[in-house]
Amino acid sequence: MESIKTDLLIIGAGSGGLSVAAGAVQMGASVVLVERGEMGGDCLNYGCVPSKALIAAASQAHAPELSGAFGVDLDPARVDWSRVRDHVQETIARIAPVDSQERFEGLGVRVIRAHARFVSEREVEAGHHRIIARRIVLATGSSPAVPPVSGLKDVSYLTNETLWDLQELPSHLLILGGGPIGMEMAQAFRRLGAQVTVVEGARALGREDPEMAAIVLDHLRGEGVTILEGEMVTSARQDGSAIELRLGSGKVLTGSHLLVAAGRMPNTEGLGLAEAGIETTKTGIRVDAGLRTTNRRVYAIGDAAGGLQFTHLAGYHAGIVIRSALFGLPAKASTYHVPRATYTRPELAHVGLTEVEARQRYGDRLEVLREALQHNDRAIAERETAGLAKVMVHRGRPVGATIVGSQAGDLVSTWALALSAKVKIAQVAGMVAPYPTLGELNKRVAGSYFTPRLFENRTVKAVTRTVQRLLP
C-alpha cells in the first residue's frame, strides 16, 4: 500500500470538491482528490446539466404550440427520443473536459479513483493508498431519497441517476414528488409528448411562496400536466410493463414509467466517519458556521454538509474552506444571499426571505413591492407575460425577492447581489437598464418603493409648486 502525505485531501469530485481542488493547488498547496464515481459528480452527469439539456429540447418541441400567435405556423413537433438523448449526452460531453481527471492532473492534483474510508482522525484509505493529510474536505454529495412505500422496491422505478438511460419516451410518466426536480421533469416530458401525472403528499413546490408557486403550477396544468396535491402513495405494484400506484384517497394510477423525485440524502455511508470522530445528523454531516466537522481537521461542504442542496452553494462553500484551510483565516458560511431557481417555464427564482418569513420577522415594518411582468415591454413583445416580481424591503433595504417569469433565474441575480453587498433599494432603483429588456423589471419594482413617497405625498407636491413659482 502506497503512503501519501498531502496538505489537503478532498473526497468527492463534484462541483464543490473540484472547486476546492482547483483553487488550492493553484495557490501552492499539495492536493489529493479521491473520487469513486464519475468526475463532475451528480450535477454534470445526472442533475443540472442533463436536466437543463432536456428542458431545452422540450422547449423546442413546444415551439409549434406558441408560434401561431406570432403569425408563424409550424408543423406539429415530431420527437425522436434517441436524438433527444444524443443532445443530452453531447451537452454532458462538451462540459466534461472542464471536470476531467486529465485537467486536474494537469493542474498538479493527484487524482485517485477509488472509494475512500477513514481509518483514523487524519488518515484515509483509498484503494491501495493510505493518505495522511493536514486538512480533509468531505464533498461527497447526495443521492436520490427513496420513500418507504410498500412494494416500491419491487418496481422498476427511475431516479435522476437512471432517467437518462431511458430507451424510449414514456407514454405515461408517473412522478412521485412535486419539488423542483419533479416539476421540471413533468413539464419537460409533457412537452416532449408523454402523458404526465405528479403525486405530491403536501403542496407542490411547497418550499416556495404559495402565490408565486401557483403561477407556475397553473401554467403546467394548462399544458396538460396532472398534479395531485395532498395525496400520499400507499403502495406500488408492477404488472408487466405497467406500474400502478395506489393512493391514500383510494385512487389508483397506472403509468408506463415511474420517476421517484422525493428529495435527496447526503452520501455519508461507508466513509468510516466514526473512526475519524465525525458526527452526523438526520440531514448530513454536522458542521459549524465555518463548515468544520466535529473533527477540527475535517470540513464538509455542499450536499454532504446537510443544508441547502445547490451546485452554486457547493462552489460558495469551496471559497470558505480555501480561506480557512489554506490561510487559517476566519471564515463563516451563510445562506441568506444564496439564490435558488426552478427551471420550469415560467421559471421561479428566490433569494433571501420569503414574504411569509419576512412578515414574521419584521411585522408592520415590512414593505412588499410588486411588479407584474405583463407591464414589461420585452415580455409583451415576446408573449412571455406570465409572471411577477415580489421584493421584500425593510427600512430601505431588500431582505428577499421572489420572481416568476421568463429568465427569472437570471433576474434574481440582481437581488442576490443586493443582499450580499447590503445594497439599498434606492441603488437598485437608480441603475439604468437597457430598453427593452426583462432586466427593467428589477428597476421598476425597486422604483415602486418611491411611488407613494414621491407621487402620493402632499408635502412633495406643495414643495414642487412652490419651487415652480420661484423659478425664473
TrEMBL record:
Q: Which PROSITE patterns match?
A: PYRIDINE_REDOX_1 (PS00076)
List the SUPFAM superfamilies: FAD/NAD(P)-binding domain (SSF51905), FAD/NAD-linked reductases, dimerisation (C-terminal) domain (SSF55424)
Which pairs are disulfide-linked?
C43-C48
Q: What keywords sit in the KW lines? A: Disulfide bond, FAD, Flavoprotein, NAD, NADP, Nucleotide-binding, Oxidoreductase, Pyruvate, Redox-active center
How many and how are cofactors bound here? Binds 1 FAD per subunit.
Amino acids binding FAD: K52, T140, G141, S142, D303
- Which metal ions or organic cofactors does this protein require, according to UniProt? FAD
Which residue windows are coiled coil? none
All copies of the Pyridine nucleotide-disulphide oxidoreductase dimerisation domain together span: 338-441
**GO MF term (any one):** NAD(P)H dehydrogenase (quinone) activity
Q: Domain FAD/NAD(P)-binding spans what residues?
A: 7-317
Q: InterPro entries in the record, alphabetically?
A: FAD/NAD-bd_sf, FAD/NAD-binding_dom, FAD/NAD-linked_Rdtase_dimer_sf, Pyr_nuc-diS_OxRdtase, Pyr_nucl-diS_OxRdtase_dimer, Pyr_OxRdtase_I_AS
Record-listed NAD(+) binding positions: G177, G178, G179, P180, I181, G182, M183, E184, E200, G263
* Family named by the database record: Belongs to the class-I pyridine nucleotide-disulfide oxidoreductase family.
Q: What is this protein called?
A: Pyruvate/2-oxoglutarate dehydrogenase complex, dihydrolipoamide dehydrogenase (E3) component
Organismal lineage: Bacteria, Pseudomonadati, Pseudomonadota, Alphaproteobacteria, Rhodobacterales
